[in-house]
Amino acid sequence: MKRSLLILGVAFSLAFTTKAQITLQPTNMPTAGHILVQGEDTTYAGITVGNAGANQTWNFSSWVKQKEITNAFVTPSTLPGASYFPGANLGVVVGTQNEFANSSSSTFNILGIYGTLFGSSNTPWYFNPYFKIISFPSTYLTKYSGSYSYEFKMIYSKPQID
């Protein structure tokens, strides 16, 4: 009898399983010491976005990794240019440039970039307002809006002719 009740209980629990929604929290974000490796496919041939909405399955098996980018998350004070971003609590090394981020209980923002962009020497680029990557908690259909811009100043002793 006990065995029958156990089997019946397991059968009912399998019949009434629920699907839980993923919730991203600040604890899901990278901290100093983490590495993120990204692959890029730049061909886009035959790739379709697929259906939107809940309970979708997307198949990315046809994508080809043509480029690999490694992002190393570090303590910001260990990077050149840290003094330009005093509000940063996380640094991200991406190639020859350093990104400075602030990870808080409500958002993950990129404050700016320090590096050699567009042929410049090491220069700070500030995002104003900050470039919001994600807000917390984030679940399916979480939305936020906004825009950002950057400011780039170069000093020339002999301005080039335009």
Task: Describe this structure in a few short sentences.
The chain is mainly β and 162 residues long. Helix content is 9%, strand content 31%. The protein has a seven-stranded antiparallel β-sheet, with no helix packed on it.
What does this structure look like?
By secondary structure, this protein is mainly beta. It is built from one helix and seven strands, in the order αβββββββ. It is globular and about 45 Å long. It has a seven-stranded antiparallel β-sheet, with no helix packed on it. The protein has a domain at 23-41 and 62-151. Residues 1-6 and 8-16 have low confidence and may be disordered. 9% of the residues lie in helices and 31% in strands.
Total E-strand runs: 7
- Strand and helix order: HEEEEEEE
Low-confidence parts lasting 5 or more residues at pLDDT below 50? 1-6, 8-16
* Biggest beta sheet summary: 7 strands, antiparallel
Give the helix proportion (percent range).
under 10%
Mean pLDDT: 80
What is the rounded distance between the termini?
Answer: 91 Å
The amount of beta strand, in percent, is 25-35%
Radius of gyration: 23 Å
Strand order of the largest sheet: 1-2-3-4-5-6-7
Structural class: mainly beta
Q: Identify the overall geometry.
A: globular
Tally of alpha and pi helices: 1
